[in-house]
Amino acid sequence: EVQLVESGGGLVHPGGSLRLSCGASEFTFGNYWMHWVRQAPGKGLVWVSRVNSDGSTTNYADSVRGRFTISRHNAKNTLYLQMNSLRAEDTAIYYCVRDSADDYGDYRFDYWGQGTLVTVSS
Amino acid sequence: SYELTQPPSVSVSPGQTASITCSGDTLGDKSACWYQQRPGQSPVLVIYQDDKRPSGIPERFSGSNSGNTATLTISGTQAVDEADYYCQAGDMSTVLFGGGTKLTVL
């Protein structure tokens, strides 16, 4: 069965940095676009970023552009999210998500990881 | 900026039909998805491309999308369907979620 396992979350001070990782298994990782989605405690889902199958194309939500960097290592079946200049409002569970849509501009988030909690606080 | 608007809550009696709406400017021109999230769990895709069900999703879940509104319909609602539901759509460079709707099965 497809598995996505996030790691790297934790407590960080405002202005600090953190790198999240997502290990993928039981599917051909290099064939899929991948996304990060976050959810603040008690709040709704918010899309953060995406990367295409070979890592050459990335997109970001306005709230994280210039601070976060998404990347992937297909040989290691791993997705990353480098988070810099963290703010209190970045506190959330961060989910790694597989996108199985066939068409550009279409989306189908068919597998989600269990999430990793990032807490930004002094 | 583009927004997707959902009602914060919907209530339904067991066995009845629940409808959850998602509104956005010309949403019908986009492809809409719906996700179910039970407390403490990761979201699960229940509808994609407006009206398609992934394997393993019960037939009582259906979707439609036209004009400015996408709708998730749950027929014969069961207690296990009590959860938060999120619509999703996007364009070439961004993805949006609605604010979520808490479905209560009374």
Question: Would you kindly provide a written description of the structure presented here, covering whatever features stand out?
Answer:
Chain A contains no helices and 11 strands. Chain A has 122 residues and is mainly β. In chain A, the strands form 2 sheets. In chain A, strands 2, 4, 5, 6, 9, 10 and 11 form a 7-stranded mixed β-sheet that branches. In chain A, strand 5 and strand 6 form a beta hairpin. Chain B is built from no helices and 9 strands. The model of chain B has no long low-confidence stretch (mean pLDDT 96). Chain B has 106 residues and is mostly beta strands. The radius of gyration of chain B is 13 Å and the shape is globular. Chains A and B meet through strand 5 and strand 10 of A and strand 3, strand 7 and strand 8 of B.
Which quaternary structure do these chains form?
heterodimer
Alpha-carbon distance between the two ends of chain A: 40 Å
Could you estimate the helical fraction of the residues of chain A in percent? under 10%
**Number of DSSP E strands of chain A:** 11
Overall residue-averaged pLDDT value of chain B: 96
* Major sheet details of chain B: 6 strands, mixed
* Number of distinct beta strands of chain B: 9
Termini separation of chain B comes to 36 Å
Categorize the overall geometry of chain B. globular
Q: Please report which band the strand proportion of chain B falls in: under 5%, 5-15%, 15-25%, 25-35%, 35-45% or over 45%.
A: 35-45%
Can you give the helix content of chain B as a percent range? under 10%
Rg of chain A, alpha carbons:
14 Å
**What is the string of helix and strand elements of chain B?**
EEEEEEEEE
Shape of chain A: globular
Summed up, the helix count of chain A is 0
**For the largest interface in this structure, which chains are involved and how many residues does each contribute?**
A-B, 23 and 26 residues
Element order of chain A: H for helix, E for strand: EEEEEEEEEEE
Low-pLDDT runs of chain B: none
Class by SSE composition of chain B: mainly beta
